[in-house]
Design brief:
- InterPro entries: AB_hydrolase (IPR050471), AB_hydrolase_1 (IPR000073), AB_hydrolase_fold (IPR029058), Epox_hydrolase-like (IPR000639).
- Keywords: Hydrolase, Oxidoreductase, Peroxidase.
- One of its GO terms (molecular function) is peroxidase activity.
- Helix 3 packs across helix 4.
- This protein has an 8-stranded mixed sheet with strand order 1-2-4-3-5-6-7-8, sandwiched between helices.
- The longest helix has 19 residues.
- It has 14 helices and 8 strands.
- It has 305 residues and is α/β, with parallel strands linked by helices.
Amino acid sequence: MPEQVEVRLPDDVRLHVEARGPADAEVTVVLLHGWTLDGRSWHRQVAALRETYPSVRVVTYDARGHGRSSCMALPTATLAQLGDDLAAVLDTVSSGGGRVVLVGHSMGGMTIMEYAHRHPEHFARRTAGLLFVSTTAEGHTHTVYGLSPRIARIIRLAETTGAGVLARCGSWRPPRALLRALQPSIRWMLFGERCDPADIRLVTSAVARASLRSIGGFRASIGAQHRLETLAALAHLPAAALVGDRDRLTPPPCAESIAEALPATDLVVCPGAGHMLMMERAEEVNGALSGVLRRVLDTSPVRDC
């Protein structure tokens, strides 16, 4: 069973954190979920890491306003705040000074970039490797939902307008009955050619646990972020980036620009896959993570066999 930790932040937001593996581990892997999801989205990666690297500590947590973490004031529904939150989580769950491999999906990847931008010394002291899954450093620059640019602009206008309304709805959660009715739309938006029904149920369950404030409130910050210059300063770190060629939210140009900013990054494009690579292509994500982690462990005095 995971060790459950509550991280209380300066603004009284409480983050639900789960940790597995030795507290004094030389290396800790921290997995950051995407917008409207929660830490459960990484369950396949957690299982693979615990089996293959038992001496590595594995941490997942629910971002503010998501999952089992508490809601927050609307002005703090920003990527900048999520970057600050990540620094606080690391100080709590990996306080022994061991090195950290950061893994981010979608908003989670953007959170890592914001942490690097806002806390460069803290980041440099702790971070040993990076894995970016279906994410971007350029906001909605490349997001056209797999449609024509004209239709994409209409959808984005409707989406941002709706997000502003939801952001003012506070800590309420979406009705589960409505989300079940929207499952075909969720499947179209987030998944590619293949989709396990259990994955749709998990995603729907996660969205049902996200506050309307977080669903709407983070949208503006996500759309506006630009952190390619921040990434360019991290080129010395072992890194990998994965994207599905059917990803409607962060299409391949998003991962390509990350790989261009980080020339040593291993870039993997998964044919037929959508936005939820850790579910749709768990083996590819696990393999890329293992590759980064092995490079980190190879420079460590304590290694897994």
